[in-house]
Design goal:
Shape: elongated
Strand content: 15-25%
Radius of gyration: 38 Å
Protein name: Phosphodiesterase
Number of strands: 17
Keywords: Membrane, Transmembrane, Transmembrane helix
CATH superfamily of the largest domain: EAL domain
Helix content: 55-70%
Largest sheet: 8 strands, mixed, barrel
Oligomer: single chain
InterPro entries: Cyclic-di-GMP_PDE-like, EAL_dom, EAL_sf, GGDEF_dom, Nucleotide_cyclase, Rev_trsase/Diguanyl_cyclase
Distance between the termini: 62 Å
GO molecular function: cyclic-guanylate-specific phosphodiesterase activity
Organism: Salinisphaera orenii MK-B5
Structural class: alpha/beta
CATH topology of the largest domain: TIM Barrel
Number of helices: 21
CATH architecture of the largest domain: Alpha-Beta Barrel
CATH class of the largest domain: Alpha Beta
Number of domains: 3
Length: 553
């Protein structure tokens, strides 16, 4: 803008010169006319005499150049000021357009790419602000967690694209019912969250829960099918059930899981809620029987080396084949095991069965490593490394084929005791993986002390990285951090070829997800392995067990 002004101001002298030239032209014409009207010849002497003898011409000689010079200067100033005003208006318009685009970009980063609702990061940010404000004003804030019942079956039976359609339908219903009085967000997967700020009374939560149940009641049309939707809802109130956003969310999720164990509906955390009531005792008996009577089943999900396009290992995932309720996902019964004190028995069952499956695969010619998730309580048990050594010896499986996955939250439960147990396990040759990396609140100074082998990037970042610059930056930074610490980077939740290709470009080491293969029973996994080898053999790629290296090596 200053350069434009200087350029325009430089034109002022030109307009002044134009004025002087016009004045001189007028004087010349007036002088010629005076001599001709006097009947004299047009000589230099007669022209000079006309100026000397004619007062009018003398006045023109003195004033007209000055007047026209001032006129030219005025015209130049007027035009330059008008041009500067136009340029200033255009600049302001461009700045306003840029601010609008930046605001829209920031807003896009706050939205869930699939549903258009607020995303998890934005919801947590708003919740933290609401809790801080409520602390100052002595008011109350509430959060609700909604988890769809049986949604995994929709994905398994009809595919993830139809699952996305269901999630969009649920999002529209929740937004239409609650957007005017609450913040509605997609919290991840098939979970949604609601923020009520401020909360007038606890009764409002019951009203909102009934409204949610009413909105979910109509069947969801899916082509020629009609699906019935239902959700389990948990609610928690600040400050009664949590003094910060993290504890408040944990309380609401706990209430949601309790509602799910009761068959769905709404559950609110109470100020003195007992974890050992009659329902918990009944649940513990069911789960204990499930472990003892072998109602649990193990599913295996392949993990692939991105660069080599080769199966490197599997992750062991437990399911509960309930005699009345059918197949129950781990998110629905592992919290029960933790609250009822059965998590050690459950972890022992999963480890024993996973190591046995890995040994069977080795015997069949597939020397794959196997990954198993462990809970905080297991890692706080000082006897766990000895028990693990016995399990490895029982199946005659080298320890390097086992990877133990630990979440960041688990690592922070009791840092020193966890570090001691994890170090003993790593010294046995077992590999350590930090699962769901980026979703916890661990300290890098503590993480770098852990004898870890890999970092697993949480699926919540991977699923939106192609549409969210923030998630893409997180994925890229996590891969860079892993490589800087000489660790492998493993991405979870890969569902599309585009995601896989982007991860390959970013230098990610391993990946797993529905795009590669769903969790499946061991017999179906063997069939899948055979089909994988056959495809890669026909395509000229690496095939056969002899070319496949161990995931944990």
């Amino acid at each position: 803008m200053p350069d434009v002004a200087r350029t325009l101001r430089s034109q002022l002298t030109r307009y002044a010169c134009y004025g002087v030239l016009i004045a001189l032209a007028v004087i010349v014409v007036a002088t010629l006319a005076t001599v001709l009207l006097a009947g004299e010849a047009l000589t230099a002497a007669n022209l000079l005499d006309a100026h000397r003898d004619n007062v009018g011409l003398l006045v023109l000689d003195l004033l007209l150049p000055l007047v026209f010079a001032l006129w030219g200067q005025y015209v130049g100033v007027l035009l330059s000021d008008r041009a500067i005003a136009f340029a200033r208006d255009d600049t302001r318009r461009l700045q306003a357009d840029r601010a609008l685009l930046e605001a829209r970009a920031r807003r896009a980063d706050d939205l869930d790419a699939l549903t258009g609702l607020a995303n998890r990061a934005y919801f947590v940010e708003r919740l933290e602000s609401a809790v801080a404000a409520a602390n100052l004003s002595r008011s109350r804030v509430a959060v609700m967690i909604i988890d769809l019942d049986g949604f995994s079956e929709v994905n398994d039976q009809f595919g993830s694209s139809n699952g996305d359609r269901v999630l969009k339908s649920v999002a529209r219903r929740l937004d239409a019912a609650l957007s005017e009085q609450a913040l509605v967000a997609r919290f991840g997967g098939d979970s949604f969250a609601v923020l009520l700020d401020p909360l007038r009374s606890a009764e409002v939560l019951d009203t909102v829960a009934r409204r949610i149940e009413h909105e979910l009641e109509p069947p969801c049309a899916l082509d020629s099918l009609s699906l019935n939707l239902a959700g389990s809802i948990g609610g928690a109130i600040y400050p009664e059930n949590g003094r910060d956003s993290h504890s408040l969310l944990a309380a609401a999720e706990g209430a949601m899981h309790r509602a799910k164990t009761q068959g769905g509906g709404f559950a609110l955390v109470t100020a003195r809620e007992s974890l050992h009531d009659a329902e918990m005792h009944s649940l513990s008996s069911e789960l204990r029987a499930a472990i003892e009577e072998d109602q649990l089943v193990l599913h295996l999900q392949p993990i692939v080396d991105i660069a080599a396009d080769r199966v490197q290992g599997v992750e062991a995932l437990v399911r509960w084949q309930h005699p009345r309720r059918g197949l129950i996902m781990p998110g629905d019964f592992i919290p029960r095991a933790e609250r009822s004190g059965l998590i050690s028995e459950l972890s022992n069952w999963v480890l024993k069965r996973a190591l046995s499956s890995a040994a069977d695969l080795h015997a069949a010619g597939w020397p794959l490593g196997i990954s198993v998730n462990l809970s905080a309580r297991t890692l706080l048990d000082p006897h766990f490394p000895d028990a693990l050594a016995e399990l490895l010896a029982a199946v005659d499986l080298p320890s390097r084929y086992l990877t133990v996955e630990i979440t960041e939250d688990t690592l922070m439960a009791d840092q020193q005791r966890t570090l001691d147990v994890v170090t003993r396990v790593a010294n046995m040759g077992v590999h350590i993986s930090i699962d769901d990396f980026g979703t916890g609140y661990s300290q890098l100074a503590y993480l770098k002390r852990l004898p870890a082998s890999e970092i697993k990037i949480d699926r919540s970042f991977v699923e939106d990285m192609l549409v969210s610059r923030t998630d893409l930056s997180i994925v890229q930074a996590t891969i860079g951090l892993a490589h800087a610490l000489e660790l492998r980077a493993v991405a979870e939740g890969i569902e599309t070829e585009s995601q896989a290709e982007r991860l390959r470009q970013l230098g990610c080491d391993y990946m797993q997800g529905y795009y590669i293969g769903r969790p499946m029973p061991e017999d179906k996994f063997r069939d899948w392995l055979g089909a994988w080898d056959l495809y890669h053999a026909s395509a000229g790629g690496p095939a056969g067990p002899e070319t496949r290296s161990n995931h944990s090596a």
